[in-house]
## 1
Amino acid sequence: MIRFLQTSGQTTKYILGGLLLIICASMVITLIPGGLGGDVFGNAPGKGVVAKVDGSDISADEVRTTAKQMLQQQMQGSTANMSMLLPFFSQRAAEQLITRQALLSEATRMGLRVTPEEVKEELQHGRYAATFFPGGNFIGEQEYQDMLTRANLTPAKFEESVGHDLVLTKLQALISGTASVSDSEIHEQFVKQNTKVKFDYAVLKQDDIKKGLHPTDSELKAYYQSHLASYANSIPEKRKVKYAVVDTNKVESGVTVTQDDLQSYYQQHRDAYRVPEQVKVSHILIKTPLPGPDGKVDEKGVAEAQHRAEDLLKQLKGGAKLEDLAKKYSEDPGSAKEGGSLGWIGRGQTVAEFEKTAFSLPKGQISDLVKSSYGFHIIRVDDKQDAHMKSLDEVKADIEPALKHQKAQQIAQRQAESLLRDARTQGLDAAAAKQSIPVVTSDFFSRRDMLPGLGPSPQFMEAVFAAQEKAPPDLASTSQGTAIYELLAIKPPATPTFEEIRSRIEDEFKNEQSKTLLTQKAQELSDRAKASHDLKKAAKELGATMKTSDLVLPDGQVPDVGSMSGQAAVAFTMKPGEISVPISSGTDAAVLQILENQQPTDADYAAKRDQIRDSLLQGKQQERFGLFVSNLVDEMTKSGKIKRNQEELKALARAGSESGM
């Protein structure tokens, strides 16, 4: 509940972000097949226009905005790798916008419309209700406009988008509504999902076969020669360097931060240390009923909620602990488990009635009942804090290490640049000796190796492996600071000799041979068992391990057999006594003999019939609408009603890959 009480700050950010993501998500018709492509047909769209759909332009700006919204939704707030993924999402966004516009065009052609009253109903009672009609009450025209403005939307644009969503919903319902499911299909699916089988099974393991293989050198050499192409240049390129590291941590240990430094930083960042007036509060909430479809509130329900809240207040005045009552009775799930505690709140973070009481109560006092759009609150002020500016002494411990690190980075940067200049004129050894920095000469190393004194340093490795032989010294960032390095030699990729990778060859040979032998032995096991009608006898002859399963459903798992929805699904088509073909589960193979095939009962069918019908119907509806969408886009593309600007799409992808978020 506190998430709804708080209507500014971080929560406002989420609401605004949510609006954009909801609108973005509404463009994604989940039943649309992916990869809808097509060529440009005459009169290509102009610059800045990604596509024309039945005369309507889809701009590159629209695609970029949608792609970023989709990506932010996918990454759930993380910014890592966003710029790398943006080109891919730009292509998806373009196709989804094209498909959306094609569907809207078709809906218009079919005469589907949405009235202003339907849009209003969606805003008031649909997915936007919690944002614009919290507690059933409109937030007000000005706040509505302001909220949309902060989300870079206008009321007209937003309401148009909501109307389009409703039109698409009508179109989808119209197309999908023709799907139906017969009783025989329902029963067939029921039997398929609820039949159980029990079986004996003989298991052969690849590892057991592998242990019995002892290849000779001649066999391994022949294997090496036949697979030589796969070993070509499998020894990666290696390089040898010498380097000197300007260690930022060592530099930092010698840095001092003066009182003047601290004072100057503090004055420049005073706003960061302003603390607003705050109160630390706990509360109990008893909710009141929301307005019904007619806008009326159940007054009887409100009176009942008030009576319950008054009873709790009476208990508190009688000595009961608010924490205990909140955990047991409060209907704000977020704070109830914390004994009613909402922590520290500032002005503008809660609804007006709650804020007025919380900031007016003395510390330690419990309020009378406070009525808000959510219900009845009982509020206790646990602590208060006046607005003030934190002193330098209070924030010194935070400022000093940041300043120290900042100074160290600046000093280390100047030191590294000086070392590089000297290394290019005097040589790295002489330049490093001048600054008393040790020089390390490496052995040959690959990109994945770790060098002494550097730690994991991908930027250093990238720089070294991009450098040209005999190039002058250069610098690169490391996890410790900055390294000045000189490339000494390059050892190109090489093909290993037989002796160098003998153990690898032996392991690969055994894997390949044991896999082949496992397949052959499993087939022999199945053939022998079928011939004698005795799986146990065949298993004993071939050294297989016998096991027995429990009764298992088609979505079950059996040890050494794996998922019953894979190859083992054949068991559900077999009769008791029948023996299966070999069933592979990676490094194991098994042969089954059915003991029991248990059919579901009519009582089970009656209980599950509706659920299965709904599932089958939903699948058919999705399939039908997906086919409709695919055919529509294909036909509109062929007829020239959809024209894609391939050059603009390519430019958009390139720009996306080169720009940040």
Note: The first strand starts at residue 49 and ends at 53.
## 2
Amino acid sequence: MALIPEQILDDIQARADIVDVISRYVPLKRAGRHYKAVCPFHKERTPSFHVNTDKQIFHCFGCGVGGNVFSFLMQQERLTFPEAVRQVAEQVGVPVPDQGDASRSGERDRLLEILAKASQYYERMLASPSTGRPARDYLRTRGVAERTRETFHLGYAPSGGDHLLQAAKRSRIPQELLEQTGLILRGKRGLVDRFRGRLLFPIQDPRGRVLGFGGRSLAGQDPKYLNSPETSVYSKGRQLFGLLQAKDAIVKAKLAIVVEGYFDCALLWQAGFPQTVSPLGTAFTPDQARLLARYTDRVVLAFDADAAGEAAALRGLDVLVEQGMQVTVAQLPAGVDPDEFVQAHGAPALQGLIDRSLGLIEFLTACAAKRYNLRHPDDKVRAAQSVLATIARVPNAMLRAEYVRLLADRLNVNAQAMAQELEKIRLHASSSPPRGPAAPPRAGSSTNGTAAAAPVQRRTGGQSAEQLFTALVLDQPARWDTLQGEIVLEDITDRRYRRILDVICELRAQGRAQPTPAQVISRLRDDEAGALVSDLVGVAQAEPGQDEALRKCVQRLRRDALQRQREQVREQIRVAQELGSEDEYKRLLIMTTTIDKQYQQLVKNTVPAGKEG
């Protein structure tokens, strides 16, 4: 996705009120000029979550999370930065071009609108006393309750050739757009409905937008399941069925259950497992893994206990562990799928299977034992190599080492030899072309994207000079101009603070005389930076004598910079002596004398800017 132009970001932020957005999720109470609440990102009794209306930022003094209006949605809804921007943009009426093409963006919105209307039409057909009876009868035989039907917005496409097409004509929906949604197709006798005589499962993204449909045959026609084709708004490898209904439960449980089918997902939700999702009739993909990783890093695979289900579990394991996720596999009885099991044995029995689900090494060695004779040395090696192929995908080196130890114990193979074989596999994989873009951070991580940032740790007893200096410049960006010649960015050694100051300089160079903290956060585009910036705003506001504090910070930063310069020159002098370079040695001696004088003068004039701890 192309970067969203900065001018559009600023326009959205200018129109959006962070209080309006956050109050939709958290009950805010006025506290003077600002607002406070119980933090939605960690458990607490006393409100420590504050919303600064002047700066248009939020910060929790309990867990350290913070940022602007986009940061809040990224963490609350597990959105990427572009998704959060577009959601706010829709709310405030600012158009955001899709990959730089406004016409394509408008067409996409129109297709989504048509898909939403089609879903409503199919729901009405299912609810119709006469038309929807075959589908309702089938749902009763499958044990689907009305509440579940309504929650997942199930629908029915009547038998016949053009019911949806005629309904679209009555609503004056252009046929060419309807065709682009994949809901109609060209047959031998013209345009016809794609879905006919099928129970329909709308496929929604985490924002609730209908992207496509999965249709289950009711009259025995092939295929049993028919899915929407790939379109400009729908790619089945990038979505998960049921995620809209499951996302909050996944975050709360810190666990996702992945099943194979639509009915498995809906009926497990009905049975009290709301954290259940399903891929869309395909092998689990890296995009689906990255999407799920926004909400949790723990997954239980509950696939059918047959050869196809085992193969799907193995493919899913490879993809999920490559994203750094902790994966276990529930062992269902042979010939029984999850929805049959829960209806026959009840929710407690299914919970027991989930609790006893096999870990990575247990499941992989069990699968290998079915394919290889582990009493035969050659087969034992092949079995080990098949498991190592999955272990090689684990990004954490310590976890890989632990898996190798466990596998070596289970197969009674030398662990050192196995570790060497693993490195060969990894070396071969690293020389292959990359599989795709890097994954966004998992839920609970503190970088870019989708989860509450780690608390910002302040130094006990005060702030460092770099922290306080950055906070004061952030509070009044014009201060940077007054310091030209005294401080340069290279004097800031902490990359986090240098990055913030660099953004402030860029914004001022672009003509923004007073860039706001909210604008700085948007340029940085990650949760850790948002939390840091919101914390720095608090640091500046808590400083009573800002001008004097700034002067002391500059003195300390210059002194530290000279100290680093002295050490560098002394190392250069040592090298010159070793090489016998007399001219270079004399030049460096003169330089170090000048630096020493400057340093001593600064030491006399410097008053520490806070305790350094």
Note: The longest helix spans residues 546-579.
## 3
Amino acid sequence: MRAFGGFGRDFFRLAVVAAAYWLAARLSLNLALVHGQVTPVWPPTGIALVAFLLLGRRVWPAIALAAFAVNLPIGPSPVGAAAIAAGNTLAPLVAVELLRRADFHHELDRLRDAIALIVIGALGSMAISATIGSSVLVLAGTVPLANFLSTWAVWWTGDAMGVLLVAPVLLGVLVPTLSPSASGGGIRVPLAREGRAYAELAGLLAATGIVAYLVFQNGLGLQYVVLPIIMVSAWRFRLRGSAPAALIASGVAIWSAIEGIGPFSGETLLEKMVTLQVFNVSAALASFLVAAFVETRERQQEMSRLYASAQLVSEAKTRFLHLAAHELRTPITVVTGYLSMLSDGTFGKVPEGWKTPLQMLMGKARELNTIVADLLEASRIEANALPRSHDQMDLRTVVQDAIERGQPRADLVGGELVTQLPGDPIPVEADGKQLGRILDNLINNGLTYTTRPPRLIISASVEGTRAFVRVADNGAGIPASDRDRVFERFQRTNDPAFRHVSGTGLGLFISRQLAEGHGGSLTIESSTPGEGTVFALVLPGVMAKSDAPTVPSTPVEVSVA
């Protein structure tokens, strides 16, 4: 039943598209400047393009069948009508495929979308249908070869204007859009909830029709006075207001050309076509170019407001965290001190039953102290208030000191720390404590985020003018989608196997900031889920004072279990 219902809906949509195409074509032919021959606007191209955009390629049978039904009575032959119908189907289909490759937005909410619709949808792709149709008429003998270019120009112009005038109207109606609030500000509400907006839009459309009728009733050449009203419609209601206004103005212009009144009085067919199409192009461009510009401008303003708000929130959060961490440090220090004195018997002999609880409290107090230290350091980094004391040192010494600090924990979890250091010094200018903090974080993470006995390889080397420290672990690995996020503040792994691991999610954030403060970087060089990760700390090297080139020594591997 569901499959039948889905088929029924699809068939109904195809029938609606075919009927709309056929009806629009018949009306357009009845309004031709010369009955059945010259059509200044061909709305079916706009209908076909929007149908392909919103419903996909599967609507091509409906478009092809409707185009064949339109061309069969007026075509040179059934075969010729079929060829023309194929061109009428192929042109909008190619236009839509190219628009999708250009990341076209159905809302026409960017200037690039308006330009893409003009260049790709109207001017470029409609040359396909014009070329096929004109060639068929010439080959059938309906149009002399000498008139091929003029026939092609009229055909191409009509199809292009159908895209420029009809497609924006249909997109504005069929694609959900928002209208500006009554105040005209950046906050917008659904059009259906704005009674005043409806009334204002109706007034603008009525004014467009009245002004267009008046200016096309005389031969003073004032038809372009209607463009400011179309631009106001675009400014206030974007595509939903400007596209119908442009279509109304174009409809009045076509009617005036058929009647031969106003600026079209006494003009030849070619002159009427030129006058009419210049006005139609101007109305279309004034319509959705202005609408797209306003939409882009409002989006940029909204993004600026959101960015400013996010900055204020971030600054407030940073101040709060700094204040909270600073205020917590003193009571945590006091608690830790008293727990230490209780444990070592300063206040008397500790009952046997108290020893385990006191050890647990001491461990949790140390965790709290680490969290507070992380928060304070992160806030100092953001405020650029970390002290800088860069001295020249041997990077190998920094690595060895970090190994010594991490070895007790490695022994506790049954892990192995392996060092690979060259025989020659690796001179760098750095803050030893800050580099040690980076390595401590990397070693601690390697020992923590693994489901098997951890094994870390910490190596140091010189590559060109830069010094490298690599920490390779056999841990859980990091998915490619998370490799940038792990260096953000408060980022923790979502792996259920490590939910019990305590921490603030600031370690890698602080480490990267410290590395960049040294003019270096901290990155994930490689990572394979389930096998491990290699972190690379890169620092600017210090050139040796000796003029003789330095030959790298073979790394010496030391394994400490």
Note: The radius of gyration is 37 Å.
